[in-house]
């Protein structure tokens, strides 16, 4: 059972998300908060598997809560899905830097929201398809996740790690990467665990953004593509 915390300052959104996720047989909504401070307190006491946070909330915003729940000093560490009505907003970039595991627009189709919660609970990052290229392109033009440390990833990564990074940038899960490369899932996880410290990132999403920043994968309106 996936235990979920929902935080949003709009009662209708809270009720809608609670009804949507609570209707799934493998998801339980264990807490509902109306502001960031309440969300942080509930997360620390309830220890949910996933926290779905509005990006703009009174008290503490979604970025601040994400940093507390998913940053390097988080205790307990809780994966965060950010919900936003703003498809390109400074808060989105701040949340990615803070360690958010996923981003969704609030008007996303219900099945997309449910699937995102499941993927994040399984350890996979997720971004609404309408956001992916725009977020990465915007990072390329105006923001830096962390200093670029190499012109190309093969200066830092083994050939296998580079293969995995490319497939990760295509949105593949660990299981899909394992099938593509004919590896055990545990082997893929081991490669990811060794790769991310080399890139100076803490999450799969940050690794993908690193790949775009360093032109390992190039931004293309039709979708990710190797370069």
TrEMBL record:
One Pfam family, short name: Response_reg
SMART domains, sorted: HTH_LUXR, REC
Molecular function GO labels: DNA binding
Residue ranges occupied by any Response regulatory domain in the UniProt entry: 3-121
Naturally occurring in which organism (per UniProt): Aeromicrobium senzhongii
InterPro entries linked: CheY-like_superfamily, NreC/VraR/RcsB-like_REC, Sig_transdc_resp-reg_C-effctor, Sig_transdc_resp-reg_receiver, Tscrpt_reg_LuxR_C, WalR-like
One record GO biological process: phosphorelay signal transduction system
Protein name per Swiss-Prot or TrEMBL: Response regulator transcription factor
Occurrences of domain HTH luxR-type (ranges): 150-215
Alphabetical keyword list: DNA-binding, Phosphoprotein, Transcription, Transcription regulation
Lineage: Bacteria, Bacillati, Actinomycetota, Actinomycetes, Propionibacteriales
Domain of life, source organism: Bacteria
List of residues that carry 4-aspartylphosphate: 54
